[in-house]
C-alpha cells in the first residue's frame, strides 16, 4: 500500500465471508456504511453514501484525498 493514498482497512461482518475489495473508498463513507450494515437509520443531512449497495459498476472512479506533508 501507499502510506499517503492506499491505506488498508479490515472490517469483519459476523456471519459473512471475508472479501478483498481493491477499490478506493473515502473515510467519510464509512459511517453511513456502518449504519447501513447495522440496520440503523442514517441521520439526515449526511453528504456521504453507504458503500453497501454499490456494485463494481456503481463504484466511484475517484475519491477526495488531502495531504499535510510531502507526497
H-E string = H
Structural class label: little secondary structure
Quaternary state of the chains: single chain
N- to C-terminal separation? 14 Å
Report on this model:
By secondary structure, the chain is low in regular secondary structure. The protein is built from one helix and no strands. It has one helix spanning 30-37. The chain is globular, with a radius of gyration of 14 Å. The two termini are 14 Å apart. The relative contact order is 0.20. The model has no long low-confidence stretch (mean pLDDT 75).
What's the arrangement of secondary structure elements?
Elements lengths: L29 H8 L34
Q: How would you sum up this structure in a few lines?
A:
This protein is low in regular secondary structure and 71 residues long.
Keywords:
single chain, 71 residues, little secondary structure, 1 helix, 11% helix
Amino acid at each position: 500500500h501507499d502510506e499517503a493514498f492506499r491505506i488498508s482497512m479490515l472490517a469483519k461482518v459476523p456471519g459473512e465471508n471475508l472479501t478483498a475489495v481493491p477499490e478506493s473508498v473515502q473515510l467519510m463513507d464509512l459511517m453511513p456504511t456502518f449504519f447501513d450494515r447495522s440496520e440503523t437509520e442514517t441521520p439526515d443531512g449526511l453528504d456521504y453514501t453507504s458503500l453497501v449497495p454499490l456494485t463494481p459498476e456503481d463504484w466511484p472512479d475517484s475519491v477526495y484525498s488531502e495531504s499535510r506533508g510531502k507526497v
